[in-house]
């Protein structure tokens, strides 16, 4: 009989230490060591559910239509989304393999590549991305909540806005945002191994909402129309807009791709996540973006407005035609989008972010507490300021890629080419020079230097896009392809640095987590215990019982 951990909500607030009664160290707790066998329950079906949640959502819908609003034609927008999705899927496979092989998550990949202290920088950078992305998804979830409430209660729909224009949010939207917070926050305490029903329920709800909105738009418009860009651009600008579409999709999804090991560590078999990573992500993102492009074009024909956010479409429909039929349709569609925003935040932000924070302070923070920290920060950053215009939305997504793509390139090259898929697992929990991952004072200078060298070419364009400062067009276009520059450049520079100055240590023999002969750091360990016990005993050799 499969057993699961006790509910996390009571024990989260039981004591100051993350796990009362355990001997956690500054480098380990139960959330960042190899997953025990009883929690390795994710099959191919489960991973497909994950990628459905990642690809069938408001962000994916808005991708194609937001590029349409920025001047790119339908073919360029859809093609860019498809290529970007394929790239993100490949990165997910390459970065997910450590989780499949060692049942360890992204924080351990960061330690192996950037060093014990260098991983703090990587994790902090990823947390910054998580905070913003969680805030954006929460804001959109709040919009969906306001649609549901407004469809149900006319008094709420007709409520006057009491907030100043400088707030960049209305009273209705703020109330919806608070409702989303109240519902989403307790759901973070669901254990990852029990997340599958939530993801599948969300999939059915949001799929019905998106296809319903798409069918309504096409039918109400009297058929599909050829999507027309909102403005004219030159052929040269079109080429770079396509690259921007690729970069924004790859950048927006690289955040979840680079930390795929946070989920693949729960895989039941080695093959379970592979097809879902390589095919599930690209297909779901592209299909959703296509629906968004044609629905947005049809709505523009009818209302003269290019509205790229599907939830904003529902808000507009309620304002223009507040009758029983519209209210019913918007209620169910809003409910579907609300469920989607909950699952997206659970799958892509709360669990992974919680795990990242727990790696920074493992003695006092576990995944649940880390998720709470993430939510508090994400709720307080005024996330609506990041997405209220299509240009800003694209810039935000591209900025994710600018900062994260070099990390992905370095991690991939280190695991697959430098370490040849072999880790010395116990050394990942040793915070001194006896660990091969200590490098130089706990930092792998090769990885840090690579990140600096590959991020600076995109920085002037980033400043221009976010602060409105005019820079040379070459810098702007470099920023538009920042993901490509960062990922490929980062991988190449890191590989060359490792050739010039090889990192310490050597590829170690595989640790056999299945109860046979094990070789760790040259020491043979005979073990015939179950996998879950084996994991713990192997870790005890180096870091003490936790």
UniProtKB/TrEMBL annotation:
Q: What is its main location?
A: membrane
Where are the membrane-spanning stretches? 47-64, 76-96, 117-140, 174-191, 198-219, 239-258, 278-299, 324-344, 364-381, 393-416, 479-497
Highest taxon, organism lineage: Eukaryota
Q: Which compartments does it reside in?
A: Membrane
Cite the Pfam families for this sequence.
Answer: Transp_cyt_pur (PF02133)
Gene Ontology MF, one? nucleobase transmembrane transporter activity
Q: How does it sit in the membrane?
A: Multi-pass membrane protein
**In the UniProt record, which is one GO cellular component term?**
plasma membrane
Cited InterPro entries: Pur-cyt_permease, Uracil/uridine/allantoin_perm
Q: Which keywords does the record carry?
A: Membrane, Transmembrane, Transmembrane helix
The text of the family note is:
Belongs to the purine-cytosine permease (2.A.39) family.
Against PANTHER family, the record matches this protein to:
NCS1 FAMILY PURINE/PYRIMIDINE TRANSPORTER (PTHR30618), NICOTINAMIDE RIBOSIDE TRANSPORTER 1-RELATED (PTHR30618:SF15)
Q: What is the recorded name of this protein?
A: Uncharacterized protein
């Amino acid at each position: 009989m499969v057993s699961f951990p006790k509910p996390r909500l009571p024990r989260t607030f039981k004591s100051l230490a993350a796990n009362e009664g355990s001997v956690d160290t500054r480098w380990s707790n139960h959330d960042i060591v190899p997953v025990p066998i009883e929690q390795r329950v994710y099959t191919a079906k489960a991973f497909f559910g994950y990628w459905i949640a990642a690809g069938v959502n408001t962000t994916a819908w808005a991708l194609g239509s937001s590029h349409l609003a920025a001047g790119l034609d339908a073919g360029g927008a859809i093609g860019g989304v498809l290529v970007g999705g394929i790239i993100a899927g490949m990165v997910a496979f390459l970065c997910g393999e450590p989780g499949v092989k060692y049942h360890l998550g992204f924080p351990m990949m960061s330690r192996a590549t950037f060093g014990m202290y260098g991983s703090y920088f990587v994790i902090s950078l990823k947390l910054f991305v998580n905070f913003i992305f969680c805030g954006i998804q929460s804001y959109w979830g709040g919009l969906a909540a306001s649609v549901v409430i407004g469809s149900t209660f006319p008094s709420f729909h007709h409520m006057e806005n009491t907030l100043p224009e400088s707030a960049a949010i209305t009273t209705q939207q703020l109330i919806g945002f608070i409702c989303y917070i109240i519902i989403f926050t307790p759901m973070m305490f669901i254990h990852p191994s029990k997340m599958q029903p939530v993801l599948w329920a969300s999939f059915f709800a949001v799929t019905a909402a998106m296809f319903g909105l798409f069918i309504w738009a096409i039918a109400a418009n009297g058929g599909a129309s050829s999507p027309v860009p909102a403005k004219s651009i030159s052929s040269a600008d079109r080429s770079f807009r396509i690259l921007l579409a690729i970069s924004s999709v790859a950048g927006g999804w690289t955040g979840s791709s680079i930390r795929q090991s946070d989920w693949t560590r729960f895989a039941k078999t080695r093959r379970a996540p592979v097809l879902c990573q390589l095919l599930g992500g690209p297909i779901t993102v592209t299909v959703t973006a296509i629906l968004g492009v044609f629905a947005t074009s049809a709505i523009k024909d009818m209302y003269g407005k290019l509205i790229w956010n599907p939830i904003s479409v529902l808000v507009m429909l309620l304002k223009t035609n507040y009758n029983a039929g519209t209210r019913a349709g918007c209620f169910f569609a809003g409910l579907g989008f609300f469920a989607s925003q909950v699952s997206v935040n659970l799958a892509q932000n709360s669990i992974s972010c919680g795990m990242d924070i727990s790696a920074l302070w493992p003695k006092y923070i576990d995944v649940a507490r880390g998720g709470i920290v993430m939510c508090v920060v994400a709720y307080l950053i005024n996330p609506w300021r990041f997405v209220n215009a299509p240009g800003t939305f694209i810039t935000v997504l591209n900025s994710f890629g600018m900062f994260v793509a070099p990390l992905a390139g370095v991690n991939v090259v280190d695991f697959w080419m430098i370490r040849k898929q072999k880790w010395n697992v116990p050394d990942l929990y040793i915070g001194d020079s006896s660990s091969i991952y200590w490098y130089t004072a706990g930092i792998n200078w090769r990885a840090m230097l690579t990140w600096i060298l590959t991020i600076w070419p995109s920085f002037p364009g980033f400043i221009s896009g976010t602060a409105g400062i005019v820079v040379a067009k070459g810098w702007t276009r470099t920023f538009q392809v920042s993901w490509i520059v960062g990922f490929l450049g980062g991988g190449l520079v890191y590989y060359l640095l490792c050739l010039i100055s090889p990192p310490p240590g050597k590829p170690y023999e595989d640790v056999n987590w299945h109860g046979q002969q094990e070789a760790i750091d040259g020491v043979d360990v005979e073990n015939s215990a179950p996998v879950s016990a084996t994991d713990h005993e192997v870790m005890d050799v180096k870091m003490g019982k936790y």
